[in-house]
Amino acid sequence: MKIDILTLFPEMFESLRTSIIGRASKKNILEINIINIRDFAKDKHKKVDDTPYGGGAGMVMKPDVVYDAFKSIEGESKKTIYLSPQGKTLTQNKVEELSNEEHIVLLCGHYEGIDERVIEEIVDEEISIGDYVLTGGEIPAMVLVDSVSRYIDGVLNKESIKEESFSNGLLEYPQYTRPEIFLDKKVPSILLSRKSSRD
Ligand code: 21W
């Protein structure tokens, strides 16, 4: 799977390289490409935003700059997702659905958002990660990458996916490891008598 991320803050994605996802990238299972929208600014001041028509607080990302950044991505059949507070809330079912895509593009907005005309032109789907206000789409994009990457073969083992509680509706249960007694609290005896992969 290939994931292109369009952002004004590429340095926020550094952590992806060192994590579990970085390992999958090395195995060529997952290819993550960060594109700095500012590289497509037109003027010498590298201007990427402007004041909103009709007034209001903050700045809006310019449509031409975002459009050119998007156009720099190759491939015909890619699904473009705009991380937006107005989007549909991400669910485990959506994560699983997205994991079957060959190529996705994640568009991260900042400031007050992106000019609507370029959204209409390039975006297939708008996704939010929940009803609270963040400063931009970068952390939501990372949440999406992290959750989707678990379904890409080789990132996690099959058991972890099977055992996970969210999509199959099973209840999660408390977990214990050594030592057997911690702060005078004993591990439940039913778990101690059970043979497992330990030792
Ligand atoms: C937050 C941008 C609030 C714009 C006037 C009319 C992406 C996000 C974001 C942000 C506004 C997600 C407006 C959960 C989030 C994100 C930045 C204000 C603009 N002004 N999921 N419309 N929460 N947030 N609205 O904040 O980009 S996914």
Characteristic terms for this protein:
29% helix; binds ligand 21W; two-stranded antiparallel ribbon; elongated; Alpha/beta knot; alpha/beta; single chain; 199 residues
Structure overview:
With 199 residues, this protein is an alpha/beta fold. The chain has a single domain (2-159), classed as SPOUT methyltransferase, trefoil knot domain (Alpha/beta knot), CATH 3.40.1280.10. It contains eight helices and nine strands. A five-stranded parallel sheet has the order 2-1-6-5-7. A two-stranded antiparallel ribbon has the order 3-4. The chain is elongated, with a radius of gyration of 21 Å. The protein starts with a strand and ends in a 7-residue tail after the last helix. Ligand 21W binds at residues 56, 83-85, 109, 112-113, 128-130, 132-137, 140.
Residue runs with pLDDT of under 50 for 5 or more positions: none
- Identify the CATH homologous superfamily: SPOUT methyltransferase, trefoil knot domain
Query: Helicity, in percent?
Result: 25-40%
Discrete helix count: 8
- What is the overall pLDDT average? 91
Q: Biggest sheet, in brief?
A: 5 strands, parallel
Ligands and ions found: ligand 21W
- The best one-word shape is elongated
User: What's the β-strand tally?
Assistant: 9
Q: Any idea of the CATH topology?
A: Alpha/beta knot
Number of domains: 1
Strand content: 15-25%
Helix and strand content put the structural class at alpha/beta
Separation of termini? 37 Å
How would you spell out the order of helices and strands? EHHEEEHEHEHEHHEEH
- Assign the CATH architecture: 3-Layer(aba) Sandwich
Radius of gyration: 21 Å
CATH class: Alpha Beta
Strand order of the largest sheet: 2-1-6-5-7
